[in-house]
Amino acid sequence: KVVSGGDTIWLHEGVYNGRYNSTLNCTTANKYITVSAYPNHRVILNGNVSSIKKQVIEIKGNNLIFKNFEITSLNDFSRIETDKDFSRCDGVNHTSGGNCKFINLVIYNNPGSGFNSWKRTSNAEINECIIFNNGFFTKKRGGGVGMYVQNSSDKERQIFNNIVFNNYYKGIEVWSANKDAKEAYVKNVTLYSNVLFNNGLPAGFYRDNIIVASDDENEVNIAKNITISNNVLYHNTNLTKEIENTEAPSLTLGFDKKAPLENAIIKNNIIIGRKNALRVLYVKSMQFNNNVVYSGYVRINESTLEHIIDDNWNFNNNSYYTRRTKPIRIIGSRDYLLNEWKSKYKLDENSGSYNFKDFNLANVLDITKSQYKTNSFRVVLF
Known about the structure:
This protein is mostly beta strands. Helix content is 4%, strand content 40%. It has 3 helices and 39 strands. The strands form 5 sheets. The chain has a 12-stranded parallel beta sheet with strand order 2-5-8-11-14-19-22-25-28-31-34-37, with no helix packed on it. A hairpin with a 4-residue loop joins β15 and β16 (142-143).
């Protein structure tokens, strides 16, 4: 109760062993309480301790900024869910509160998910974070994602300029697995200028770098109002045959027929994977423009084609690099030449189809200046 709006809590150099609850709450309009590493100090929150808490830090509160420190589990611990000494520990659980910012956090090596941004957290911003090597082994697959995102608010969830890689399951899930939802909470999310690669690989299979979907069977919790723009989504394409022959999706849109994605804007992305780099499963309305796709095929679920006929899709100015002359595969139906696709569905008028061997990108894909650190840049090389 001593801390008020505009104050900063400085964390000094060191390793802080424990699992923490933050109940800071700023009640001053248009001001923030900031928790930050002191300038040039390396601060590590280490969650590898005995605890009933399931995350390194849980955050509840309004108008908060957390920045410039590390969240991890150091030293030895089990990553196998069936081990007696396994203890799931996510990095960050942001469970409630509005108008919070998470800036330049490094979240890694946790036996759980990296960052959970739950539905009761309105108007949150996650910016310039590095999230990697989080997760564990379940009986059947890898578990733990880089970032799990929900939003029940009408305010936008902003996920900008992050690097998310090598997590044991998926990269970013804008998602709900609840089949019996009573409200909509997978909505109003923007993912801009993020770099995601090789998610799923530590557990032996490539998984989605980004998936946007809901598994609701009530037709209530519809994923909607999602923008994915200027991102680089990448899977290595030259590993062993066992890995090469997996689906290796980089972007999946929609999951359940009763909850098709609505009002999605997918533009200016680089989407690289193996057989199924781009999967359009259940999508009611979307714009898909100015994207570069490297894949076995572009795979589209046959049952979602009814929404194309309703003129709810807008595809244009895309470049498709595939292993076949027919780049568009309608799952369970047929493959289309791009010209056939254009003619039948009136999409992709100015798009091009190319052989994967002709794929070529500029060596420097992106240089992004930090919004928060002077003279700091993120450089993406290909």
